[in-house]
């Protein structure tokens, strides 16, 4: 079993829909990261969380440390949000990030 | 543009060969991380350097090595290449030693194809 599991693996949405991507992990962590990988391959760091909730524009990330679960929400989705969203956890020991397999999001106009 | 540069963008080589991937971190960032992204394994952490010293090691093969130079640029050396080494190799940089406290900025990646 992977230490970081993401769901769904693939997600297709209509423009304007509210989107949720989930991440569950089975190890103790000091922080959780959400990354966005564009179709061209470039990776952008969206959020780094150790507790609670963070918001940036239409993106919201939450984490529940007790339940070992995080969610990434996108409000009013847009075709430009189409990308792979990757969850990664930092175990806090030696800077070793463990990655989920990613969620491929496609937003149709 | 993250401010992290990687060269070359694409690299095609043969099995058994050796290649060097280069990364220049964002100005002022002392930490450099190397990651491998393959189709079957996804993203994997390889190694981290901080101000010239190795800080953390992940799933890096013995055939692979890295270093960070005094000007803070880093090189990842891959030798005795195998077909399975074909992947995207990303470099990222951050201001601090721990990912817990600092956002990582990713370079555009080097796509390595081993034929």
Task: Describe what you observe in this structure.
The complex is a heterodimer of chains A (109) and B (115). Chain A has 109 residues and is mostly beta strands. Chain A has no helices and 11 strands. In chain A, the strands form 2 sheets. In chain A, strands 2, 4, 5, 9, 10 and 11 form a 6-stranded mixed sheet that branches. In chain A, strands 1-3-8-7-6 form a 5-stranded antiparallel sheet, with no helix packed on it. In chain A, a hairpin with a 5-residue loop joins strand 4 (31-37) and strand 5 (43-49). The radius of gyration of chain A is 13 Å and the shape is globular. Chain B is mainly β and 115 residues long. The mean pLDDT of chain B is 92. Chain A binds chain B through residues 30-31, 33, 35, 41-45, 48, 50, 86, 88, 90, 92, 94-102, and chain B through 2, 31, 33, 42-45, 48, 55-58, 88, 90, 92, 97-100, 103-106, 108-109, 111.
Helical region count of chain B?
Answer: 0
Structural class of chain B: mainly beta
Strand content of chain A: over 45%
* Overall 3D form of chain B: globular
- Give, in order, the helices and strands of chain A: EEEEEEEEEEE
Oligomer: heterodimer
Radius of gyration of chain B: 13 Å
> In percent, how helical is the residue content of chain B?
under 10%
Report the β-strand fraction of chain B as a percent range.
over 45%
In terms of per-residue confidence, which ranges of chain B show pLDDT below 50 for 5 or more consecutive residues?
none
Largest interface: A-B, 24 and 26 residues
Low-confidence stretches of chain A: none
Give the CA-CA distance, first to last residue of chain A: 36 Å
Write the H/E string of chain B, N to C.
EEEEEEEEEEE
Give me the number of helical elements of chain A.
Answer: 0
Largest sheet of chain A: 6 strands, mixed
Question: What distance lies between the first and last C-alpha atoms of chain B, to the nearest angstrom?
Answer: 31 Å
